[in-house]
Amino acid sequence: MADPKGFLTTPREEWPRRPVEERVRDWNEVYVPGALLPLVSAQADRCMDCGVPFCHQACPLGNLVPEWNELVSREDWRAAAERLHATNNFPEFTGRLCPAPCEAGCVLAINQPAVTIKNVECAIADRAWEEGFAPPAPPERLSGRTVAVIGSGPTGLAAAQQLTRAGHTVAVYERDDRVGGLMRYGIPEFKMEKRHLERRVEQMRAEGTKFRTSTTVGRDVDAAELRARYDAVVIATGATAWRELAVPGRELAGIHQAMEYLPLANRVCEGDLESSPLSAAGRRVVIVGGGDTGADCLGTAVREGAASVTQLDIYGRPGDERDEEAEPWPTYPRLYRLSAAHEEAGVLRTAPVVDADARLFAASTLRFAGDGDGRVCALHLVGVDAGRRPVPGSERVLPVDLVLLALGFSGPERGDGLLAQLGVELSPRGTVARDAGFGTNVPGVFAAGDAARGQSLIVWAIAEGRAVAAAVDRRLTGAVSRLPAPIGPYDRPMAV
């Protein structure tokens, strides 16, 4: 512990965001550039280095939070970067995108604001790149074994980097034209600028990982032939089969899935398009779904110049404080959180029918109505109780020109032929079935990440990638792997 009284004398202070009126005019990250580093040493002092650090358990990566907090407090950035990268391949991703279950598990959070673990993590990662503390780490020798990783999201990238560094020859197959999966085309630029992703990909190329973009395994490449060419195959395609909203009027024009909308906005930022064909500019937008993807749509629509934006959440408004009986510490509580996008919508009053920000809580869609040309013009909704039962007399109508469905994902897509050609079995939930060693029913074929676990957080995705790499390495070498395996395939977040 650097400062035994730090948690008593230093209040929590987070990375400040840029003014709303400024940041909604561009696609840069929402935070004030350079404003984090002056904060983090004092914030790291708040870590109590407690005897049983539940932040370790709350994070599936097992991040060594008290260790790098102390090192940051002493401004030993090189050592802090080493300890951070010991458990996390991509801390600059998680430092920006993870909802920080580690902070919910912080012992200080029992009766005080938690340590700003996520901010400290991000500061270490950014400083490591600035100071050259994250050079490529190619293997000293090659094993002669080959691995195909299908999917270049956080799971696929983590697995590929671990296996490459272990000496195996790894090729990553990605169906899109650029590497990154949903981090590339699903996460808006204002949440994570893609330069962070490009930097890691270049590091991996320098280490020896090969990337095969614009290649859909199952269509462009036969999956069974791919299996025959490699010593092992890792399925890391994610859970990209989106959930539908089966209500009358769904067939009307102007109703789109979030993952039809967000990639186009990202392609504008990449320079591929001058403007998005689904741009929200001048339109009345309603987002169905109260999760992070819905918030990403919200921030994107605001930047595109929507006339209004409203987000529907079927759950009731969460409380401001943890419910100690329903969600006791150190579980991750459902609280009222104000993301950057919600803050923007509240300040700009994008949804005049709500009070605080763009959200309507406890709202369920009944049907859509169209105009004479077959385009959506209205959304009929009803209020619901805690059991999602309609509340009598609560029906209302929202005028709308563009509806975005952000209802989550059910599992891996099946239309490309990948799973059928490999012959892998599926679980009752529709995910890829696997054993305790991450292996499928097909010898040499492994499954990891959302494709097998189901929709989850980026920290779980990276942990899955690291763990499946250890399983593959064990099979290829026939010996105990030196690669870390932070989780097992059946591990789950802490819950009551």
Automatic annotation (TrEMBL):
It comes from the Bacteria. InterPro entries: 4Fe4S_Fe-S-bd (IPR017896), DPD_II (IPR028261), FAD/NAD-bd_sf (IPR036188), FAD/NAD-binding_dom (IPR023753), Glut_synth_ssu1 (IPR006005), Glutamate_Synthase (IPR051394), Helical_ferredxn (IPR009051). Keywords: Amino-acid biosynthesis, Glutamate biosynthesis, Oxidoreductase. Residues 38-69 form the 4Fe-4S ferredoxin-type domain. Pathway: Amino-acid biosynthesis. This is Glutamate synthase subunit beta. It comes from Streptomyces atrovirens. The lineage of its organism: Bacteria, Bacillati, Actinomycetota, Actinomycetes, Kitasatosporales.
